[in-house]
């Protein structure tokens, strides 16, 4: 998994170079092919094989480890070489505004009607003109119960941790999610441009950083399993996997709030195999297919008729079922340039 | 030299003069396309205006260099000060790269000397053993290192079993771990050039020195080191330069907490910052520093008798 991350890293460097040299080189039209740009460890190989067999389509897949790195790679010249990608909610909006997405008509997807009603008309893609739901879930953190037995339903464990947890906290290396959770901790709105609020955000994070052990996204599960981290910011399904691998951890739905996200399969602009991309999207709207993803990734699908097909263990999983009194989660917002400049300064200052 | 060789074989050298240029063409093409053009592109990009979330606007701007050197506070309205953030990242990288070079030299020199003084038949085996681990991808070696040194890893396990320590020795996610990663990654780049130099060394010179009453230390200092010096310097450059731009070790072993130059630049292209001109500017500043080091070396070498 780490391997995919860094092969992604190299890909982007080569991509940047190749892009500069091969501007204007047209996309290669190939029959019976599909090129996917996907998150690491997020689709079972069996399912890809099944799609290949059903449609006689050769599938290739590259992976990325953050929405931002995917965007950068596409902007650096990879657009036109992939058919579909799987950006998170706010990134769909960014890509849509930047003209990186192709649109389709709902009639082009036979299974469009399978999308759950609440996920059809979403803010980041009203009416689903460019995307279909893939999986949704939450971002919060898991706590090792052997190390800490107090109340875990507070973001203080990340941003103002008790002494016993200092130096044992792993954060996701994901600016948007860290900033969003920190904002919820302070009770300020996301993407604020208010000076005092930004300053308090800055000092909160600067004070918290020495208490963190590391920033790691693709290793977020491993550090919890190995015990390197006692508190690990993590996506709920990834946290469930860490628990399944033997870590005595509990996933928190903090009272201050937590991030909810939805990853979506998007049709990329200049897709070399547009028709096959639509076949793939249709394929992922079949309940038993997307249920296979859910059983693998342990998040939640946005398609009707999936729940009966899920593993019993997943259905009862504490990561997938927030306690009744937990607040609703909040989507990460795509901040404007003004806020983003501050966020970048804060982020660099955190890592200098 | 090549022309001479050709003439010695009795072939008409003039006929090959043109061919020689043609034979060099692939090298020039490779250097031009893969080196000069990308560097020039970086140079141009560093003077362009950034586009929000990655990309550039084709308008001249000094903003990237301004951001690197000048600090106007979080909100950009304070009096101008020197921006230490990035300079400090560069200083940390230079210190780490220098330390890695010193450690590689301390371990690499005796190793290379030892191998070069073995009988010719066994040298190949020693060299093979030095290079074997490096047939494995750097990423995999770095991840393995991470497993090895973590608090619950084998290293701490052994040390505690042996009773040398009672608490796990905390290395992972510290600058020490980064240093260990750099040192381990680039050690053979130090061993191999020094080996090549020592292997060519004529040990009759050592005997001559001893005949003239030089002790071992003087022989090492006055005879061996000056002769193998080019190999040592080549090794130092080969370790220092890639260490300076490393990002795997700080990312994986350092917990991505403290940027080195490589991670800073990477963040500009792949991270949320999406500031390509700034990434390009930082690359150009790094490149200039490396060139300065190399030019200093070239000059001091050409001055030598």
Distance between the termini of chain B: 23 Å
What is the rounded distance between the termini of chain A?
A: 27 Å
Looking at CATH, the homologous superfamily of the largest domain in chain A is: Periplasmic binding protein-like II
Q: Indicate the CATH architecture of the domain at 90-274 in chain B.
A: Orthogonal Bundle
Structural class of chain A: alpha/beta
Radius of gyration of chain A: 20 Å
Q: What's the count of strands of chain B?
A: 4
| Helix percentage of chain A | 25-40%
Oligomeric description of these chains: heterodimer
Structurally, how many domains make up the residues of chain A? Answer: 2
Mean pLDDT of chain A: 89
CATH topology of the largest domain in chain A: D-Maltodextrin-Binding Protein, domain 2
Low-confidence spans of chain A? 1-30
Question: What order do the helices and strands of chain A follow?
Answer: HEHEHEHEHEHHEHEHEEHHHEH
User: What would you call the structural class of chain B?
Assistant: mainly alpha
Main β-sheet description of chain B: 2 strands, antiparallel
The pLDDT mean of chain B sits at: 87
How many individual β-strands of chain A? 10
Task: Give me the CATH architecture of the largest domain in chain A, please.
Answer: 3-Layer(aba) Sandwich
């Amino acid at each position: 998994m780490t391997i995919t991350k860094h092969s992604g890293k190299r890909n982007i460097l080569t991509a940047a170079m190749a892009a500069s040299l091969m501007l204007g080189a047209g996309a290669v039209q190939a029959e019976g092919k599909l090129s996917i740009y996907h998150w690491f460890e997020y689709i079972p190989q069996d399912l890809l094989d099944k799609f290949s067999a059903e449609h006689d389509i050769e599938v290739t897949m590259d992976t990325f480890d953050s929405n931002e790195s995917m965007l950068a790679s596409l902007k650096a010249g990879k657009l036109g070489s992939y058919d579909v990608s799987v950006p998170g909610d706010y990134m769909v909006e960014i890509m849509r505004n930047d003209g990186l997405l192709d649109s389709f008509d709902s009639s082009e997807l036979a299974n469009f009607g399978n999308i759950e009603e609440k996920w059809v008309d979403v803010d980041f893609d009203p009416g689903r003109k460019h995307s279909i739901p893939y999986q949704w879930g939450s971002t919060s953190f898991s706590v090792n119960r052997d190390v800490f037995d107090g109340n875990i339903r507070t973001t203080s464990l990340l941003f103002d941790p008790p002494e016993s947890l200092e130096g044992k906290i792993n954060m996701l290396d994901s600016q948007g999610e860290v900033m969003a959770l920190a904002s919820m901790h302070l009770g300020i709105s996301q993407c604020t441009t208010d000076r005092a609020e930004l300053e308090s955000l800055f000092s909160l994070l600067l004070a918290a950083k020495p208490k963190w052990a590391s920033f790691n996204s693709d290793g977020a599960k491993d550090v919890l399993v190995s015990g390197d981290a006692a508190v690990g910011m993590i996506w709920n399904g990834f946290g469930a996997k860490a628990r399944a691998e033997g870590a005595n951890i509990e996933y928190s739905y903090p009272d201050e709030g937590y991030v909810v996200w939805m990853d979506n399969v998007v049709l990329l602009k200049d897709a070399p195999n547009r028709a096959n991309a639509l076949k793939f999207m249709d394929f992922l709207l079949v309940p038993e297919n997307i249920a296979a993803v859910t059983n693998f990734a342990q998040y939640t699908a946005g398609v009707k008729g999936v729940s009966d097909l899920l593993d019993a263990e997943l259905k009862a999983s504490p990561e997938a079922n927030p306690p009744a009194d937990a607040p609703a989660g909040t989507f990460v917002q795509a901040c404007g340039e003004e806020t983003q400049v501050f966020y970048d300064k804060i982020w660099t200052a955190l890592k200098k | 030299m090549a022309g001479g060789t050709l003439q010695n074989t009795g072939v008409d050298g003039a006929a090959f003069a043109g061919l020689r240029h043609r034979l060099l063409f692939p090298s020039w093409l490779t250097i031009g396309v893969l080196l000069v053009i990308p560097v020039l592109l970086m140079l141009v990009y560093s003077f362009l205006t950034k586009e929000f979330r990655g990309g550039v606007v084709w308008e001249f701007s000094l903003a990237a260099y301004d951001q690197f050197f000048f600090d106007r506070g979080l909100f950009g309205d304070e009096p101008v000060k020197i921006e230490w953030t990035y300079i400090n990242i560069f200083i940390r990288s230079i210190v780490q790269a220098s330390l890695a070079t010193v450690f590689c030299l301390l371990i690499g020199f005796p190793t290379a000397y030892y191998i070069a003084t073995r009988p010719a038949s066994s040298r190949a085996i020693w060299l093979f053993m030095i290079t074997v681990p490096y047939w494995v991808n750097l990423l995999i070696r770095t991840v393995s290192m991470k497993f090895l040194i973590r608090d619950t890893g084998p290293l701490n396990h052994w040390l505690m079993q042996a009773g040398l320590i009672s608490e796990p020795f905390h290395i992972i996610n510290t600058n020490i771990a980064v240093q260990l990663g750099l040192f381990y990654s680039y050690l053979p780049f130090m061993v191999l050039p020094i080996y090549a130099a020592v292997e060519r060394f004529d040990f009759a010179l050592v005997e001559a020195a001893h005949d003239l009453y030089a002790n071992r230390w003087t022989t090492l200092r006055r005879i061996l080191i000056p002769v193998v010096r080019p190999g040592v310097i080549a090794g130092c450059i080969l370790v220092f330069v890639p260490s300076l731009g490393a990002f795997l070790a700080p990312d994986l072993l350092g917990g991505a907490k403290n940027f080195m130059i490589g991670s800073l630049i990477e963040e500009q292209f792949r991270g949320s910052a999406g500031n390509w001109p700034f990434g390009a500017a930082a690359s150009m500043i790094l490149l200039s520093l490396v060139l300065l080091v190399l030019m200093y070396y070239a000059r001091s070498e050409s001055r030598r008798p």
